[in-house]
Amino acid sequence: xxxxKNRHLKMEQRNALKGLAFVLPWILGFLIFTLIPLLNSxxxxxxxxTITPGKILLKGAGLEFYDYAWNVSTxxxxxxxxxxMMIGCSTPVVxxxxxxxxxxxxxxxxxxxxxxxxxxxxxxxxxxxVISSLLxxxxxxxxxxxxxxxxxxxxxxGFLSKPCLFILDNLVLILWFSGVxxxxxxxxxxxxxxxxxxxxxxxxxxxxxxxxxITLPYIKPIALICAVYTVVNIAxxxxxxxxREIQENMFNTAMMYSLSAAMSWIxxxxxLLMLAVVYVLFRxxxxxxxxx
Amino acid sequence: MKRLLEKKxxxxxxxxxxxxxxxxxxxxxxxxxxxxxxxxxxLTDPSVTWIPTELCLDNFRKAxxxxxxxxxxxxxxxxxxxxxxLQTMVAxxxxxxxxxFRFPLKKLLLVLILITFLLPTQIMMVPRYVLFDQYKLTxxxxxxxxxAIFGQGLNSAIxxxxxxxxxxxxxxxxxxxxxxxxxxxxxxxxxxxxxxxxGATILSMLFSxxxxxxxxxxxxxxxGSAIQTLPLQLQSFTLRYEAVFGADAAGTINESISLxxxxxxxxxxxxxxxxxxxxxxxxxxxxxxxxx
Lengths: 292, 292
Prior knowledge:
The structure holds 2 protein chains of 2 kinds. Chain A is mainly alpha-helical. Chain A has helices at residues 2-45, 64-72, 76-106, 112-119, 121-124, 128-138, 148-155, 158-169, 171-175, 179-189, 194-202, 207-236, 241-248, 258-285; strands spanning 47-52, 55-60.
């Protein structure tokens, strides 16, 4: 009896070891390429780095570089603000837009394949240089001075008009960030059992009610995934002022590595804060659904 | 009859909305394609807007040379296909290990994997550069391959989670049958589990490929000038152009030529998409990324 149990235990241990063997590459990679670099990045941001052949010397500098990034650098805070604005304004627009697009693309109608192809274009064409070369110079301008909408929006109080104008200004760019989200929503929509809609129709529900009472609750956990993806994706967009600034300052001879590291940590904190907001928003409203 | 009419108007509304939104995606692309055929004379002639008077293929020839197309294309292909393959292999292994085995700290590992997705690239830039620089690996392909081999590649976390989701959801009975027949874990994984995870594999391959193809921020820094992929060449198109056609040629570069360059650098992905269009959509639906 006891022997039996022992054997069972051994088996379990062996199995656990085998499982770990499968996961081992990731654990090693995480240590080498993520955790240690991450810790190093914290260290660089707090110290002055000097490079001698084959060696890196660190000298504690406290908050000096954070202070420089925040108080001395004239461009960093501006870039940070505009990027935060971009993320904050774009995320809701991307979510609403991609959900709508997915709902329409989910319907059966002639020519659907063509429209799907058009709407998935941003999934394929999403590299920074291409997007910027496509969009910076050659696109439609919704905010040409003097148009009625712009005049109306500018007359609103600042906290309203600023985000609205920003969205209008960057609408095309924002919509180009919605590719993958449309795909995810579309996949989610197809998981909703059609019988629910049929039952609702028998009870006399219209399209409006069906959307609010069936589609939306079902899609909520997926919306969280999409929201997180959107924030991360836009934050990583290489065309941002912040990202360019971090890159440019990497080999800033006076502040080798350190300034960049400090900037990237400040930026990361801001992004993290936004992710937290997203999480709280979707958490509260998503009653019991949980994505496993 | 009434139903039919309703359906017709419904379709019409959908078309109108889809065309409206699709315009945002189509316009820049169509603009790009059309304008890339403009000759210098057409460009300056205000009476020529959408239809060029002649198809100026010379733009493409110049862009082709400036981009060093054949070489950069090959480079892009290697730098995207190889990491995509490596990344998919590791993601499937790790996903399988997490889904099929019980071992301590598994929950923690899953959380860590999620966190790696949230870490922005710019925070890893400095320390990874230092790491690779220490071992003299910058400006080599290893900077792209090594993280992929260890599951820390571009968006690796997404693919690990997709595999995890898939392997958690399919019945264990098959595995167990093979185990009774005496097959080892690795053999079961290769011969039974992987063939079943075709959807996840297609998703992982396609999207890894596209992500890697489009990535320029980190690779631009780590590759230096040694490795030039298509998007990287596009990023510095004007410089390239001058390098190929001489400094005094800078004046002759016009919008059409740079648009032709953009066209050329998008083309491979468009072809990929057209070929794998169905797989792009279906793989997302089959992967269970939306939670079942």
